[in-house]
Amino acid sequence: MKATILAVVAALALGAVVGGAAGATKASCPSAWAKGWQRLANRAGAPVYCPRWMPNPLDAQIGGEYQDIYSFGKDRSYLVSFLAHGDLGSGDVHVNFRGYPGRTAIPRCQTILLEGNKTIHGVTPCFADRGGTVRVPGIVATVYTVNQDADQWHVLLAWRHQGSRYTVSEHVIAPYTPRQVVGNLNRLLWSLVLVRPTR
Fold it and tell me: What tens digit of pLDDT does each residue of 176-187 get?
């Protein structure tokens, strides 16, 4: 699986440009989704990135049909996840958005390994194995192919903005091939617009 992901990750940098540039003058969060992303920015006390496009069949309506996780840490870090289970075994479509207001370091995740009858607890970087860089206007994102927690089995893009770290990831699983997931992430990155807190 990892070899397949690595084989197509380069397509992020070479993929077709779809949609407008992040932060483009007239770009804004879609009206049906804007209220939820504005509330997220206000709660985080920091800008958040709203997508203007999502892989089929997802939308990015916080509190809507496809929202899976809406989680905040004591440090104001957040995870907003969207998930659709495919009918009749067609597979899942799963996209995560994370933000770490006020910090840019790669977070660390708890790990549990089972060796025989022993359980070994530890920590590891939440995202690792860099797979290149993707640039769109306003964003320089690093590709990570080995990720933990809710981003396990995902290809993940991470970048910094004004002293905070942000990520978007998608699970590599049918109905999308690894190459299609990479294409989806490329299109997602181009579709992002900043939503700034209003209080």
Answer: 999 999 999 999
Distance CA 159, CA 180 (A): 21
What tokens does 132 get? 């290149």
Whether 86 and 174 have beta carbons less than 8 Å apart is answered as yes
Is 13:134 a contact under the CB 8 Å cutoff? yes
Other C-beta atoms closer than 10 Å to the C-beta of 105 total 8
- The β-bridge partners of 99 are 78, 166
| pLDDT category of residue 22 using cuts at 50, 70 and 90 | very low
Q: Decide if 104 contacts 142 (C-beta within 8 A).
A: no
Cis amide linkage into residue 175, ω under 30° from 0: yes
- Number of Cβ within 10 Å of residue 147's Cβ equals 22
DSSP string of 120-165? EEEEEESEEEEEEEEEETTEEEEEEEEE-GGGTTEEEEEEEETTEE
pLDDT in tens, 45-80: 999 999 999 999 999 999 999 999 999 999 999 999
Which pairs count as long-range contacts for 62-69, CB under 8 Å and 24+ apart, including other chains? 62/33, 62/36, 62/37, 63/36, 64/36, 68/94, 69/96, 69/150
Q: How far apart are CA 111 and CA 102, in angstroms?
A: 25
Contact of 39 with 62, CB cutoff 8 Å? yes
